[in-house]
């Protein structure tokens, strides 16, 4: 998990710091996620550092960076972040990325990256792009470059990926799955929320879209800094589960009578 965090931070920082602009809110949100991970580790949730993993930034690292961030010396800022992560450098070489993904040898870092890529290529896509002009990240990871990885790493063409996605949607129902007693929970700042069910499809297929919520944020432990929308979202989840459990218990009692 920590290795994934370090690898994700590299491209994020590079494209943000050397882009047209890099709003401080982006760094604050990044700091919130790292703090959340630190607190989860401290509470014994199994998110611990493995052998060879980079160290997480120390508490308060973001506050030290916000002033340099607003200054013109962006290289100094990036160097401080790399130091906080215990990294000397972060590669953004496409060829190196492909070579790492092709490797089937056990890895100390990037664990699961190859497997995840294979699943996206053979099941559901899930490729995140940044094609909107207002997007704060690089527009380089467009859909063709994502699909190109499937070809270079696994020999799977763009057509085969499209067919696999269509088959997955057909099997599971896509955005109209026809499920029962399912609550679809998403955050509106999670890029993947557009692939989910964000509006209720019926009394047994409910949907909850948490304002300013990021990926899986509702599943994290409660924190004093949680937003009102996140707290309300957790309450709604609890209430929905209570309703369905009462219905299930009532049906069970009727069956026994």
TrEMBL record:
Single Gene Ontology BP annotation: proteolysis
GO function terms (MF aspect): dipeptidyl-peptidase activity; serine-type exopeptidase activity
Keywords carried by this UniProt record: Glycoprotein, Hydrolase, Protease, Signal
GO CC annotation: endosome; lysosome
Cleaved signal peptide residues: 1-23
Coiled-coil intervals, chain numbering: none
Family classification: Belongs to the peptidase S28 family.
Protein name: Serine protease 16
Lineage: Eukaryota, Metazoa, Chordata, Craniata, Vertebrata
Gene from which the chain derives: PRSS16
């Amino acid at each position: 998990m920590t290795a994934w965090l370090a690898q994700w931070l590299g491209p994020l920082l590079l494209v943000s710091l050397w882009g047209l602009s890099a709003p401080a809110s982006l760094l604050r949100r990044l700091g919130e996620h790292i703090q959340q991970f630190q607190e989860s580790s401290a509470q014994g949730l199994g998110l611990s550092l493995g052998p060879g993993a980079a160290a997480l930034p120390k508490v308060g690292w973001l506050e030290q960076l916000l002033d340099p961030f607003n200054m013109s010396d962006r290289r100094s800022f990036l160097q401080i972040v790399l130091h906080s992560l215990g990294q000397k450098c972060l590669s953004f070489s496409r060829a190196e990325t492909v070579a790492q993904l092709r490797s089937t040898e056990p890895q100390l870092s990037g664990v699961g990256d190859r497997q995840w890529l294979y699943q996206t290529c053979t099941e559901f896509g899930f490729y995140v792009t940044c094609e909107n002009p207002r997007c704060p990240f690089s527009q380089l990871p467009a859909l063709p470059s994502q699909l190109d990885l499937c070809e270079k790493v696994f020999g799977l063409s763009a057509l085969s990926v499209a067919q696999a996605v269509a088959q997955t949607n057909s099997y599971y129902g896509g955005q109209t799955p026809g499920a029962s007693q399912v609550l679809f929970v998403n955050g509106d700042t999670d890029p993947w929320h557009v692939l989910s069910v964000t509006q209720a499809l019926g009394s047994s297929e409910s949907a909850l879209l948490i304002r300013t919520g990021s990926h899986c944020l509702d599943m994290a432990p409660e924190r004093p800094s949680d937003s009102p929308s996140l707290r309300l979202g957790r309450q709604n989840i609890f209430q929905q589960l209570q309703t369905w459990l009462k219905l299930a218990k009532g049906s069970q009692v009727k069956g026994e009578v």
